[in-house]
Request: fold
Amino acid sequence: MYEPVIGLEVHAHLATETKAFCGCANKFGVSPNTLTCPVCLGFPGSLPVFNRKALDYAIKVALALNCRVNNYFKFDRKNYYYPDLPKNYQISQYDLPLSVDGYLDVELESGLKKIRIKRVHMEEDAGKLVHTQSYSLVDYNRSGVPLIEVVTEPDLYSPDEAYCYLMELKEILEYLGVSDCDMEKGSLRCDANVSVRLKGETVLGTKVELKNMNSFKAVKEALAYEIERLSGALSKGEKIIQETRLWDADKSITASMRSKEEAHDYRYFPDPDLVSFTLDKSELDSVKKSLPELPRAKRMRFEKEYALSGYDAGVLTSSRDLAGYFEECLKLYPQPKVLSNWITTELLSYLNEKKISINEMSLTTKALVGLLELLDNKTINRNSAKDVLKIMLDTGKDANAIIKEKNLFEISDDSALDKIAEEVIAQNSQSVADYKSGKENAVMFLVGQVMKKTSGKANPQKVNEIIRSKLK
Ligand code: ADP
Ligand code: MG
Ligand code: ZN
Reply:
């Protein structure tokens, strides 16, 4: 009888060379406090200079999310005191953000849903605190790293919807090439706001903000937990207090961190060190032109143009590089379904097992297509082709060389197969009897025996035919 309402705030690091307001390198995983300067350490008298690339990246995101980009925007100081924030304020955007009023179409099981985007704005990250048993350390390498914040309207009605939205958003950011979106490194973070209300009620309930989820799955779990907790409290007649709660992944619970602060607590005011910006239409247009085809459009085109299933199109477009690889192969070998099968099963399972991406493998499109042609012209059979593919991926060797070296040529000599089939039939009288008494499966056993004797190099279909004709 209660229904949840969810709004998400996603922060993504922009993958620029340098930080948002200084020339320090924007890099992850280097020695603490080696990527710092007076600006990102907040020394008095130092002045920020805004990173043009960060602006371009942020505009790309805003446009991809169908937002209206303001032609006039500014930066504001969000004031609070914390050891990871040496200036005692974060440069962010308050009342004149980069962009507002967008939407993202998300495919749910129930169909397509438009999730409204309230705003996409720019800000800088704080440093990182590393806590030990008895003291805490601070690393300012992350201080001043450019971020975008993408805020939805409260349009999501279940943890699953939130999850689908996040997956779609992440794919878009990856396609745009503006962020590596690695939640483990903290380059993508999601705060989830959730409230519950009686079904049919139109007014929103009091919301709780959830933090500290380090995967999309954790976002889903935290939301599910919180929805239960809020519904339980309401049904007992308790009053919900607006607060920020932290997800504890070990215990699978949320716990109160602080009662929610209000915007006025931050004493926002325009940053006097940064001038306001105007964007003219031509700048906006040129970024617009540079946008790649986005994931959903590509998915739909793949389904239509190549007659692929929604599932296959989804897998192939899950990364822009994978989709690109597929389409490159297609130019050489215009059989979408065959290519899709090999790429989504054999190739991807290899890459997943080795935990590498499509860019990190050495198999060229030409090499993969060459292998498929050897299969088509019956130089090798399907099983051998799978083995050869693995060896190609492992060693970078050419398919022909591997086939020769391992002598994997398909046995095309019918009389040889005939002889082996006869042997197998003679040696397995029980299976033959089984088959004759109606056990269809017995044939498969006999085929298997022939395949074994040929070290898997026969064409299983052909063997099947031979055996059947002999058993007639
Ligand atoms: P705040 O000023 O507290 O940050 P915002 O209005 O900026 O609040 O909203 C932050 C996020 O919380 C947005 O994603 C918004 O959709 C969501 N949100 C706001 N009110 C509610 C509510 N009552 N229930 C669920 N989500 C909400
Ligand atoms: Mg907010
Ligand atoms: Zn710096």
